[in-house]
Specification:
The complex is a heterodimer.
Chain A (H helix, E strand, L loop, with lengths): L1 H21 L1 H22 L10 H16 L3 H4 L1 H9 L13 H12 L2 H14 L2 H26 L2 E2 L5 E2 L2 H11 L5 H36 L4 H16 L4 H28 L4 H14 L6 H17 L5 H6 L7 H8 L1 H20 L14 E2 L4 E2 L7 H12 L3 H32 L3 H20 L3 H42 L7
Chain B lengths: L3 E5 L4 H17 L2 E9 L8 H29 L7 E8 L1 H12 L3 E5 L5 H17 L4 E4 L1
Helix pairs in contact in B: 3-4
The chains are: A mainly alpha, B alpha/beta.
């Protein structure tokens, strides 16, 4: 029955897609309708602060990260070693074997965040903000660790555990239960608002954007072909996994994606080793660029803005999605998952993003004026001039190809797999938000999943700029709602943390290993 | 203190042979038996979001299935054998967990079956017997 629905949908799209591709008219109409009705909202979310080109939403996330960092006394520095011990299982009760471990919760959450942001986003940041953007990206990633700590502690503390043993958690639960506990009004409205944004964000940033980029990358390697083909294929596989329950595919992806991530880091390290004599120079460029800009538009602020922006977009700290993934862990202390979650921005932004940036800087794909040592600014494109004037995934691809000519093919596979695993994660986040609003039930769930698959085809078939802008805006709307909730609930996290640290010191909480 | 024998048990024919052997051994020595059912598990495996959410539920189901479908019938059958038997269900790496159980219960020897044929049981008793020979800290009997 389910497969028949999908077959019918596919047939529908197949019959309309070629027409869609030929008639730019329909595309344009959709764009126009979307732009007319949602443009003001997108403009509001991505509005720049007066007199700058720094969007307030990026500042919103960075300020939140700073506040949490100070409020929890630099937990990301003081708790770093403890986090690693927790992930290693040093504090896990052996009798809990067979339950979700800290490592498993972290790995699943990471497979949702590591992806295009680390490959494409960094290239965009470095090409617009120069190498200095890397410095600010690292800083933003380091502070973002405190935000993840806060949201994931709350996610575990206020999760719902049902009589049958299943667990549901996430911002909507800490909004309702946490607000009630603190005697604050409006928790229910916050939760509903958050869920609406999550559903739309899941269809957009977690789906259409991913599908779109996956197709762009495939077309780059295989030669141009219609996007709906990628869309139908991807949608078919996602459909088989989330509706058909073909867990084996999901399991294969989950095994391949971490491997891809590790492989990406290893390849990056190899490239850095090959160019070992330039690593110090590259760090010098990054530091110098951080404070001077080295020729990019806006100089110091240009680098800062790009770095902050991309870090926020890549590690999702403050958006609330991670709190959903982390909440299933087996632990008696919610704070322990907060500790573990703070490693997420570290691995995603401080390690993986920095690798990409270093390789781009070292391989010299960004054009430098040999006389001044400054980067050559292409004012027309609004970024540093590169060979073939590429940016995004293509720039990263070009940089790695300088040392390893076969890398672009592998990168294309990696991008598709990353996009696929991000889609699976977001289909789950979206579904959780959907069932929170509409209630659980087989039919209701299938409706959402079918809608989700349909949007994959739309996402890769058309270049619906305004639609994707709108969905990105939704993703960051989640952050607006979520961060306000985090501010209101942070005293609770503080109480949890203080009590935990006290019992850790007194030896009441002990190691098992 | 009477001797204690740890028996690795998963309900397979090989495991039953091992148990029969251990019961005779226990009867002749006046020893007791610890029936250990280890469910293969690594805390470092990757699960999807859905599997994370359902893990606790699945674990409860796995444990109750192991108890009712595998251990209970055997315990019932051996109730009249005169040997005191305690059963344990644990998660982990089979061979390592058997060694841990032996240590925790103060056992003096271990008995496991071996199924030379492969198949599902081989996952536990093919490699388990082999690994156990390498890492066992106690005298260990492999029943073919």
């Amino acid at each position: 029955m389910i497969f028949r629905i999908f077959a019918a949908l596919t047939a529908l799209v197949l019959s309309s897609a070629p027409a869609l591709a030929q008639e730019a008219g329909l595309d344009a109409t959709i764009n126009q309708i979307f732009a007319d009705y949602t443009g003001w909202y997108v403009a509001l979310i991505f509005a720049d602060l007066p007199g700058t080109n720094f969007s307030w939403i990026a500042l919103w996330l960075v300020v939140a990260a700073l506040i949490f960092t100070f409020y929890f006394g630099f937990i990301q520095l003081k708790g770093f070693v403890h986090s690693i011990r927790l992930v290693r299982g040093d504090y896990s009760d052996p009798n809990d074997a067979g339950e979700v471990s800290h490592f498993q919760a972290l790995a699943t959450a990471l497979s949702g965040t590591v992806g295009l942001g680390n490959i494409a986003g960094v290239a965009v940041a470095v090409s617009i903000g120069g190498p200095g953007a890397t410095f600010w990206m690292i800083i933003a990633g380091l502070f973002g660790m405190a935000t993840k700590f806060t949201e994931c502690t709350l996610g575990v503390k206020y999760r719902n555990e049902y009589p049958d043993g299943t667990v549901s958690g996430g911002p909507m639960y800490y909004m309702t239960k946490g607000f009630r506990e603190r005697g604050l009004p409006g928790g229910g409205a916050f939760a509903i608002l958050f869920c609406i944004f999550t559903i739309l964000g899941a269809l957009g940033g977690g789906n259409m954007f991913q599908a779109n980029q996956a197709h762009a990358q495939l077309a780059g390697v295989l030669g141009d072909y219609p996007g709906w083909i990628t869309g139908v294929l991807l949608a078919g596989v996602v459909f088989a996994v989330i509706v058909g329950g073909l867990r084996s595919i999901a399991r294969v992806t989950e095994k391949v994606v971490p491997f891809m991530g590790i492989f990406y880091v290893i390849v990056s390290i190899i490239i850095l080793i090959v160019n070992y004599d330039e690593i110090l120079w590259a760090f010098g460029r990054i530091l110098e660029g951080a404070f001077t800009g080295l020729g990019v538009l806006g100089g110091f602020t240009g680098a800062l803005i790009q770095g902050f922006r991309r870090a926020a977009f890549s590690n999702e700290a403050g958006i609330g999605s991670a709190a959903i993934a982390h909440s299933a862990v087996r632990t008696k202390e919610p704070v322990t998952e907060g500790y573990v979650a703070l490693l997420e921005p570290f691995i995603d932004t401080v390690v993986i993003c920095t690798m990409t940036a270093l390789v781009i800087v070292i391989t010299g794909v960004l054009n430098v004026d040999p006389e001044t040592g400054l980067y050559v600014w292409n004012a027309e494109l609004g970024r540093i001039a590169t060979e073939g004037d590429v940016t995004g995934v293509e720039l990263t691809s070009a940089a790695y190809a300088q040392v390893l000519p076969w890398f672009p093919v592998l990168l294309a596979i990696a991008v598709v797999l990353f996009a696929f695993s991000t889609m699976l994660s977001w289909s789950y986040y979206g579904l959780k938000a959907w069932t929170y609003i509409f209630g659980e039930g087989k039919v209701k769930e299938v409706i959402f999943k079918v809608i989700f698959c349909f949007f994959i085809i739309i996402g890769s078939a058309a270049s619906l700029g305004p639609v994707i802008d709108f969905s990105d805006a939704m993703l960051f709307s989640m952050a607006v709602v979520n961060v306000i909730a985090l501010y209101l609930l942070m005293p609770i996290v503080r109480g949890e943390l203080d009590s935990y640290v006290r019992r850790l010191r007194s030896g009441e909480i002990k190691k098992y290993v | 203190m009477p001797d204690r024998i740890v028996v690795g048990f998963d309900g397979s024919p090989a495991a039953r042979r091992a148990l029969d052997f251990a019961v005779k051994l226990a009867q002749s020595q006046g020893a007791s038996i610890v029936l250990a059912y280890v469910l293969e598990w690594s805390p470092y495996s990757f699960l999807s979001n859905e599997e994370l959410a359902e893990r606790h539920k699945r674990r409860k189901e796995e444990v109750s299935r192991a108890q009712t479908a595998v251990l209970d019938p055997v315990l019932e059958k051996l109730a009249g054998s005169g040997v005191s038997i305690e059963a344990q269900i644990r998660y982990g790496h089979s061979a390592e967990m058997l060694v841990t159980i032996a240590r925790d219960t103060g056992a003096t020897q271990m008995v496991v079956g071996r199924d030379g044929n492969g198949g599902l049981a081989a996952r536990m008793f093919g490699s388990t017997a082999g690994t156990l020979v390498q890492i066992a800290t106690l005298p260990c009997t492999i029943v073919p």
